[in-house]
């Protein structure tokens, strides 16, 4: 479990560069710059939030970097490691959620993070986590297949077993249990990853982060200018409600941020700007909206 002394600096340097690269690429597509908000956390650390609202392509998007410390590991972070509860901790990562304006362009989420739990006289315990997943409102097989193939490509150099493991983990994690419904078409998700050694684990996390733009930008470029009307925007707002429900009820990152006294504006910048809920609503059979449920909100191998 030991790691080189320079590792924290190496991870931070990579994450700051990743945030800059992603923001630059997205701003070029949207045509509107992201605002930059540098903040400090009273208990320790801080971050940089990069945000776009009412853009030409992105109705709302946030790409956040954080490097924070704390005295007591929150329950959400120690859920799989109860022996670490109460330790001092240090965490850093990049997390993003993009909500395009066009209903045919899917919402996307990605994050990569590094965590260390510390205790006097004991060796630090570290791990990596993260992943990316796609949430369409109108499904396209070529989009889902491209996204999943790129995820598989990101993991391939680090072991043939990783993609099926992380794909299954994503399907199980991004699932609204109270509705018995997947949030979207999935992707990959991993946590508590510290296999082989630090160099191997860090390299895997970097590959996930580096493949995000390859996974998402071709999809956004294909869909951002497709003609649509009020019907499609209305359904998009309705389906965005599922995103809100998952983030507030189940998401471990949201819970960790709130439980650790994190900055609320940065934690909740992932939420969509326009959302609707309806009582007991179901799409009509045979419609494109119904096809989202029957053909895309199902667990399947999109790379086959």
TrEMBL record:
Its main location: cytoplasm. Substrate binds at residues 95, 111-113, 261-263. The record marks 178 as: Important for dimerization. It catalyses: coproporphyrinogen III + O2 + 2 H(+) = protoporphyrinogen IX + 2 CO2 + 2 H2O. The active site is at residue 109. Residues 243-278 are annotated as: Important for dimerization. GO terms for molecular function: coproporphyrinogen oxidase activity; metal ion binding; protein homodimerization activity. Its EC number is 1.3.3.3. Pathway: Porphyrin-containing compound metabolism; protoporphyrin-IX biosynthesis; protoporphyrinogen-IX from coproporphyrinogen-III (O2 route): step 1/1. Homodimer. This is Oxygen-dependent coproporphyrinogen-III oxidase. It comes from Noviherbaspirillum pedocola. The gene is hemF.
